[in-house]
Design brief:
alpha/beta, 8 helices, Rossmann fold
Amino acid sequence: MAARTCVVTGAGGGIGGAIASRLSAAGHRVALTARRREPLDALAATLPGPSLTVPADVTDPSAADEVFQAVEARWGPVEVLVLNAGAGVSAPLARTTDEDWQHMLDLNLTAPFRFLRRAAPSMTEHGWGRVVLIASVAARHGAPYVSAYTAAKHGALGLVRSAAAELAGTGVTVNAVCPGFADTPMTVRTVERIAAATGRTEEQARAELERQQPIGRLITPDEVADAVDLCVLSSAITGQGINVDGGTVQS
């Protein structure tokens, strides 16, 4: 594949960092965005190819325009957009606040919508584009204590499917990758919350998450990046939610 201009949100580490590293190793130009500059600069220093760091809070309504303008000024139109920024909130339904609910929608659904809306016109004009949204198995089935997160991720998968249907035939594909529990800082925080709420040790809490996946372990960030690779390379895969969850959800 020819070198492409890529944007990865939530690129400060974990899954976003693995995806950015994979794209750079494949010869692409990679723009990294997240709230804090320091982890972006640290990652950029390790990339083999051209990189650009653009700190931004993706929940800011102006973030998509600002990030795209910075990338376009340096390299031209964005051709690959990986929407990785996201986070979860855990609470029983009755104790999920309006603020929790709105934050989950703003970060996991509205921000990807704005970035996708900003990317689509240029991609369709040039007849080529790849959008990959990092969702979650929470986009595929319900689980207790994560109603706001699950609702937002279900919405994100719906956004992917609708956008893919609308853009089919233009040369632009839109897909979601749905990881299970992955070996990332987000899962570390989940383990800490489980341990604090249940009195288990963090080792016991982590082992419980591992047992929830039929392969008996956490997913690695590189395994998520494998699925992103497939979505970027293929022009025939679009509108899909690709599970990378060790067999947790079979579909």
